[in-house]
Amino acid sequence: SAVISQKPSRDICQRGTSLTIQCQVDSQVTMMFWYRQQPGQSLTLIATANQGSEATYESGFVIDKFPISRPNLTFSTLTVSNMSPEDSSIYLCSVASGSGDTQYFGPGTRLTVL
Amino acid sequence: AQSVAQPEDQVNVAEGNPLTVKCTYSVSGNPYLFWYVQYPNRGLQFLLKYITGDNLVKGSYGFEAEFNKSQTSFHLKKPSALVSDSALYFCAVSPSRDDKIIFGKGTRLHILP
Predict the structure, then answer these.
(1) B34-38 mean pLDDT
(2) Mean pLDDT on B31-51
């Protein structure tokens, strides 16, 4: 499976500011995904990031709040904009395996908004 | 609507005993089924998957899961639990390859020494 890293691993931010989370993979992958895990909750898909096209957002998530970049096949960023305490979550990126039938996850970014 | 249910918020098992973590799903067609584990302050780790073939699939750390189409279940099992198995376990389903994954709410497994 691919080795996935995320930066930062955690951060504490003030409300109204923005944070950009980076996801790096050690091999080229077609599909990358961004998930949110709110405290004590399951994972919810935010968007699918495809190289060369705009991200596809799930219901309830919008590009203005969670802009995503995918400049190449090994890297993606998720920005959490104009943050509020409700954005406090773990944000995880994942990649689809070469066969496309399994997703592997990064270690996550734990965000706390004060 | 597609969904995954994990009916137990928490499961307690004595070390050395067999464990089962339950999962049922509602997906049309032939689903892709997964189990992931999350240790404290760590990301999700892939345990095992079922796509097709033998209904009993084996995965990492001695875990296995049984696909039951008639009961739409995919329960996670291990013959002999270890204290180190204590973690949060997520069942997940995807309607097809390259499709998004839908996660259950998670079951916290406590293995008692």
Answers:
(1) 96
(2) 91
Tell me the H-state helices in A1-114. Answer: none
Question: Hey, are the CB atoms on B49 and A102 less than 8 Å from each other?
Answer: yes
**CA distance to partner chain B, nearest, from residue A105 (Å):** 6
Pairing of strands A89-96, B73-78: unpaired
Task: Check whether B100 has a pLDDT greater than 90.
Answer: no
Is the pLDDT at A80 greater than 90? The verdict is: yes
Q: Per-residue confidence at A48, pLDDT binned at 50, 70, 90?
A: very high
Q: Would you say A80 and A21 are in contact if contact means Cβ atoms under 8 Å apart?
A: yes
Q: Which contiguous run of DSSP H or E holds residue B12? A: strand B10-14
Distance CA A55, CA A87 (A): 20
Q: Give the pair of three-digit tokens for residue B71.
A: 């009961």
Best mutation target among B8, B101, B102, B105 (most A Cβ atoms within 10 Å) is B101
Cα A3 off chain centre by: 15
Do B57 and B49 touch, CB atoms closer than 8 A?
yes
